[in-house]
Amino acid sequence: MPRTPEQFEKIREGKRRQIMETALRLFAREGFHNTSISMIAMEAGISKGLMYNYFESKEALISVIIEEGIQEMLAIFDPDKDGVLTSHEFEYFVGKSFDVLTANTTYWKLYFSILMQPGMYEMVKNKYEHVITESMQIITDYYRRKGLKNPETEAILFGAIMDGISMNYLLSPDLFPLEEMKKIIIERFR
User: Fold this and answer.
1) Per mean pLDDT, which range of 60-69, 143-152, 161-170 is the poorest?
2) Per-residue DSSP letters for 106-169?
3) Are 102 and 45 within 8 A, CB to CB?
4) pTM here?
5) 65 in Cβ contact with 24 (< 8 Å)
6) Residue 20 exposed, middle or buried by CB count within 10 Å (0-12, 13-18, 19+)
7) Cβ neighbours for 106, distance < 8 A, ≥ 6 positions apart
8) Residue 31 and residue 131: Cα distance in Å, rounded?
9) CA quadruple 41, 42, 46, 47: dihedral, nearest 10
10) Residue 24's pLDDT is what?
């Protein structure tokens, strides 16, 4: 019996996901520049030609991987998408950020390790810089409405602390008191 279009789409999405997960592991282990399309295809168990049916280049593939992480975080930031962060939405974002992190630690370890490789941030910066800028502006406006003296600096500090906590947790999840950190962040930065 022939496959339905839905079955074909499910197979296609499964193969695409397999390629992305394989590439993520290889990029983290070997480095982006040392990983070839051939290596990804071989490790994923597909032909190099089939690989190009899913991603036109290694750069396109890394861009999709980075975008997936950014989109996952954007989905929980400013949930009503009105450009205004409330105290409730701030607290929701902090809590959900760490839930996302703990739900898939392997992905986030690899994600951060790839972004930290030489030249990687520069490669994707132009595509995502506006998203980061807009998010930082929303946080800055939040702090401005709260009456803080230096809202821009507070927003940068908040972002740096969130990144730092995330990376420290990923390095030593058993030794890092994530729930306590979440409470402190909400208390101090809300």
Assistant:
1) 60-69
2) HHHHHHHHHHTSTTHHHHHHHHHHHHHHHHHHHHHHHHHHTT-S-HHHHHHHHHHHHHHHHHHH
3) no
4) 0.79
5) yes
6) buried
7) none
8) 26
9) 80
10) 87
pLDDT for res 135? 92
Distance CA 146, CA 149 (A): 9
User: Contact at 8 Å (CB) between 67 and 128?
Assistant: yes
What does the pLDDT read at residue 117?
79
How many angstroms separate the CA atoms of 51 and 15, rounded? 9
Nearest to 59 by CA among 122, 123, 126: 123
What is the residue whose two structure tokens read 């003296």? Answer: 149
**Token pair of 35 as six digits:** 């990983």
Predicted pLDDT of residue 176: 84
Average pLDDT over residues 161-181: 90
List all residues 6 or more positions away from 54 whose beta carbon is below 8 Å from its beta carbon.
15, 16, 19
